[in-house]
Protein: Universal stress protein UspA-like protein
Amino acid sequence: MRQGPLAGRYPAVAAMVTLALIPYLALSAAVDPLVPIISEQLSLSAQTMSLGFGLGNAAYAVGTVLAVQFAQHLPQRRMLLAYAVVLVLGSVIAASAVNGAMFIGGHILQGLATSMLLIAAAPPLTIGFPRDKLRHTAVIMNMCVFGAVALGPFIGGAQAEALAWRPLFWIVAGVAVLALIMAALTFEDAPPADLDAPRDLRAIALASVGCAAAFIGAAQLTSHGFTDPAVIVPILGGLALIVVLIAYQFKAARPLLTVRTMLTSSIPVAGVGVALFAAAASVAATALTAEVFMQTYSPVRVGLLYLPELGGAIVMAFVFGAVISKRSMHYLPLVGMGLLAAGIVMFRLAIPANQPLALIASALTGLALGATVAPALFVAGFSLQSNSLQRVFAIIELLRAVAAFMVAPIFAHFAATAAGGLTAGAGDALWVGFGLAIGGAIFGVAVYVLSGARPQTPDLDQFLDGESPAWYSPPLLARLRPGLPAPIRVPSRDRRPTASEANAMSVAATGPVLFAYDGTARAASAIERAAAELPIGRDAVVVCVWQPVDVGFTPVETTHFDADQATEVRRAAEQTAAHGAALATRASFSARSATVEAAPIWKGIVETAQEHNASLIVVGPHRRSGLLGHLEGSVAGAVVAHSTTPVLVIPEDCRRSSCAEGAAHSNIHAVAAGSMADRE
Structure:
C-alpha cells in the first residue's frame, strides 16, 4: 500500500487533523469585528455579507453528509487529500478576493472542506490507534474545535485594530497549506469503507436544500423582520426538511447516517441533547456580549476580554483526556452545563462594561464548552459500535452546526431590535441562554433516570475492536415502557493472541524468512523471486499487517468488508496472509501465515520479525513517481532503517532470470542490519 513517510505516526496524524480543523473554526469566531472592513473594501452590503457567512455555515453542515457518502465508495485517504486541496483553494480565493463573489465562494469552500476533513480524519485518529492514544485524541479534538473558537475573538480583534483583514486570511491559507502537506506526508492508501452501501442521493438532497434554506433564512434577518416571509418561510422550510431527513434515515433499511440506533438508545440521546443545548446556549454568552462590549472598548480590548475562554478550554481539554477512560466521564457534561449557566450569569452582570466580571465569565464559558460538547459527543459515540463513529459524527455535527450557527443570527436580531436597545436585548438573550443551559442539564439527567441508564467505566478495548459499544445503553425511556426484554450484555471476549502466540513453535537455528505480504502483485512477485535466491524448503512466515479504518493491505478476497469494523478487517487480513502463505508454499517454502495489528506498517513487520526470530525479512517496494511519489515514504525503506534483521528488498521490475544470476548482477538489494541507533 502506498504511504507517506509519516504514515501511521500518531503525532504527525494528530498534527494533520489539528491543522485541518483550525482555519475555518477559528475564522468563524474571529470574523465578526472584521465584517465592516471587509464590506467596505469589497463593496458588500451587510445583508450580502451575512448571506455569504450563512452559506459558508450551510456548506459546513452539508459537508458532513457528503463526506460519509464519499467514504463508502471512494478511497478514503485519497479523498482526505482532495478535501485538503479544496480547503487550500477556498482559503486562497477568500484571501485574494477582489470582489464579493470571490470572497463568498472561497468562504463556502472553506466551510465545506473543513467539515469533510473532520468526518474523514477524526474517526481514524480516534479508532485507528491503540487505546493508550485515545486520551491524547480527546484533548486534541477538544482543542481543535473549542480552542480554535475560543482564540477567534482575540485574533479578530487584533486584526480589526490594524484596519485590515487579508493578513489573517492569508495566515489561514498558510495553515491550510500545512494541513495539505501533512495529509500527504501521513498518506496511507485505504479502500472505500463499504462498496455495498447505497448511494443515498435523497439524503444528500434533503441535507443540502434543508441546510441552505435554513441558513439563508436566518441570514435574511440582517435586513428583514423575523415574521417577514423572506425569513420565516426558508427557516421553517429548511428545518422541516432536516426533520424529514432524520425521519427518512430512521426508517431506511440501509441508512447513510446512524440515526435509528442513536435515537432509540438512552445515553446517545442524552449526549446529543446536551451538546445541542450547550451549542445554542453558548451563542448568547459570546457573540452577543461581544457586540455590547464593542460599544465601549476597542476590538483588540474586547478580544482580550475573551482570552480567558481559551485558557478554560485548554484546562478542560486535559481534564477530559484524564477522565475519558473512567466512569466519571459521564458527569463531565453535567458539570459543564453548570459552568455554562454560571458563565452566562456572570456575563449578564458584566454588560455593558464590567471588565473583571467579563474575564471571569469568559473563563467559566471556556471551561463549560470544553466540558460539554466534545465529552457529550464521545459519551454518545461510546454507546454505539466504533464502526459507526463516522456516521455518528456526521449527523451530530450537522445538528450542532444548525444549533450553533443558525441560532446566532436569530439571537442577534432580537437583541438588536429590543425596545430597550442592544444592551437590554442582549441581557434578555442571556437569560434565554441561561434557561437553555439549565434545561440541557435537566434533559440529560431526566433521560438517564427515565431510561435506567447509569454511569459506567468504558470498555475501550471492546469498543476499539468494533465488536460492541464501550458500555451498555438502555433503550430510550425504558422505565416508562414496560415489556421491554431484559438487557443482555455480551461479555467481553478474550483478545486474540498476538502473531507470535498464535504461531508459537520452535524455529530452526537460522530462523525463518519473514515475508511482508500486503496482497499486491508486487508482494507476490517478491515471494516468487526470493525463492530463486534461498534454499528450497526454508521455513517462512508470511505476515499481513493491518489497521482499522486505513486497512493497510489489499484484500485478496472480492467480498466487501467494513473498514471501520476491526473484526472484519482482521478477518480479511487473515485471508490475505493465508493466500500469501499458499504462494510461498508453492514457491518451495515451508510457510505459515501471521497477522498483526500495527501502525505504522513497518513497525508491525519489524516487531513480527523479532518475535519469530526471523533471519531475513523480504519486502517488495512500490514504484514511486510524480510529486506525491517524492513525498511518499517507503515501507521497505522504513523496515531497512529500523530493523536489526537483514532485509532483502526486491524491486517490482526484478526479473526471475536476473535474480537467479546472483546479487552482483541482479536487482535484488540485500541490506545487512545494523543497530537501530545508527540508522536513526
The domain at 263-476 is CATH 1.20.1250.20 (Growth Hormone; Chain: A;). The chain has 26 helices and six strands. The beta strands are 513-516, 539-546, 590-597, 616-619, 647-649, 669-671.
